[in-house]
Design brief:
Blueprint (H helix, E strand, L loop, with lengths): L1 E5 L6 H10 L3 E6 L4 H8 L3 E4 L3 H10 L4 E4 L1 H6 L4 H8 L3 E3 L1 H11 L3 E6 L4 H14 L5 E3 L10 E2 L6 E5 L14 E4 L13 H13 L4 E4 H7 L6 E4 L14 H18 L3 H8 L10 E4 L2 E5 L3 H14 L6 E5 L4 H7 L12 E4 L16 H4 L9 E3 L4 H12 L3 E6 L6 H11 L4
Parallel strand pairs: 1-2, 1-4, 2-3, 4-5, 6-9, 6-10, 7-9, 10-11, 11-12, 14-18, 15-16, 15-18, 16-17
Antiparallel strand pairs: 7-8, 13-14
């Protein structure tokens, strides 16, 4: 069977393409732009092309007939009349989002699903569960929406019983799955275009818990959901046993404890052994990732994630070391919902550079909110200034680093993002 992935460079679709190839399918795909994901896929001999046109997919279909087209949510949201979707419908090609294919592969491989969900912390927790299985030398298949330093973003594992999946709430993707075990990492109202009210998001997570044979979640999140689901282990955040985890960052330690609890239930391994293994966890790309001495990049775009990043930064900083933040909001539509929640998210910062919002899947009817409009929502707005991704900002960063300051970039990922710009500046030696 020939499966074509539209939007193959995305963090959800890319790992699935790798998994489909390992499952024995003929795999190809396209994306509108080149990225680190597309480069990785080509390294694994997956044929893809950059540019999504009817001509390109028609030429491929004529050469190797496509049986199934899997598309990312962003493809349809950005353009309901996307040429590849129209081509598939016109040629009676099976058309679906990623969840249907993944469920097909899980069933065909006789795997049991471990689902990691939550509005924050799920990539890290998914990677931690994978790490623990590997340290225990237990085969594990997985798909994670971030780059991990100890393997590809997605793979099958011969002889495995379980498959670990980062169950994304965006577009209600996670409601397509029925995990044998689920972990809820942390909750807050997000993806407002999908969940127009807090209650609608709470209902979706309650539905997901109802579809899981057993679950782990924090006591505070269970309270927020307003339910005590059956077959769910409610984990207390004030458990002193968590202090045995030595990873930097309170949020990381909490994610690690949930991972330990889940793997302990599935494997029967002792908590002490699992904690020793999790303390060796190497982290994820762009999760307080150090690019150079005193220079960090962190994927964060909601108040909870921004606070978590700042807490970790204060733990990593030397005593009295000034912390400088460069912030890039993710999506203009999100800003309309969270602008009044910024307040003290950067309370420990010495200086803040606020760059324009990284745009994706935007509502054309919403004017773009500028840094000048968003900064006043900070309690410490007097230390913040608008900035651009240009030589002036690079010079300012170099100045802060020269003076021994910690510089933390928080924002999106991918081409054109603050993270990508910063990595290139480091590579070019522009911050020395």
């Amino acid at each position: 069977m020939h499966i074509f992935f539209s939007g193959i460079g995305g963090s959800g679709i890319g790992p699935l393409a790798l998994i489909a190839k390992q499952a024995g399918f003929e795999v190809s795909g396209s994306d509108k732009q080149r990225s680190a994901y597309t480069d990785q896929l080509q390294h694994h001999d997956i044929g893809l092309h950059i540019g999504q046109t009817e001509h390109a997919i028609a030429r491929l279909h004529a050469k190797k007939p496509i049986d199934w087209l899997v598309y990312s949510s962003s493809v349809e949201r950005e353009n309901p009349n996307h040429p590849e979707l129209l081509f598939a419908r016109a040629h009676n090609i099976k058309l679906s989002k990623r969840d249907e294919l993944l469920n097909h592969i899980i069933a065909s491989q006789n795997l049991q699903l471990i689902g990691i969900a939550g509005t924050h912390g799920k990539s890290t927790t998914t990677a931690m569960v994978i790490w623990l299985f590997r340290k225990l030398r237990i085969p594990i298949g997985y798909s994670v929406g971030a780059k991990i330093p100890f393997g590809p973003a997605g793979q099958l594992a011969p002889g495995s019983t379980y498959f670990v999946y980062e169950c994304d709430e965006f577009d209600r993707n996670f409601l397509a799955f029925h995990p044998v075990l689920s972990v809820i990492t942390g909750l807050g109202w997000d993806h407002h275009e999908i969940f127009p009210t807090e209650d609608s998001l709470k209902q979706a997570f309650n539905d997901f818990l109802g579809q899981s044979q057993h679950s782990f979640m924090w006591d505070s999140d269970a309270d927020w959901l307003g339910a005590k689901p059956q077959h769910c282990s409610i984990v207390a955040k004030n458990n002193p046993a968590i202090d045995a985890i030595t990873l930097p960052g309170e949020y990381n330690r909490h994610d690690a404890w949930l991972a330990v609890q889940a793997v302990q239930r599935l494997t029967g391994e002792s908590t002490s052994t699992l904690v020793a293994h999790i303390n060796e966890f190497p982290g994820l790309k762009q999760r307080m990732e150090q690019l150079a001495p005193n220079l960090y990049t962190n994927y964060a775009h909601t108040p909870e994630k921004l606070r978590g990043g700042m807490i970790t930064a204060t733990e990593l900083a030397q005593k009295n070391q000034p912390i400088v933040v460069i912030y890039e909001p993710l999506t203009n539509r999100r800003q309309y919902f969270i602008k009044n929640l910024y307040k003290n998210v950067f309370a420990e910062a010495h200086k803040i550079y606020w760059v324009p919002t990284f745009l994706a899947r935007e509502d054309p009817n919403q004017p773009i909110l500028t840094p000048e409009q968003l900064i006043p929502n900070l309690t410490n707005a007097h230390i913040a200034e608008p900035a651009e991704l240009n030589d002036q900002l690079a010079t300012a960063i170099a100045h802060h680093l020269k003076n021994g300051h910690m510089v933390v970039a928080m924002g999106a990922s991918g081409n054109g993002s603050l993270d990508a710009w910063l990595r290139q500046k480091v590579k070019d030696g522009a911050l020395n």
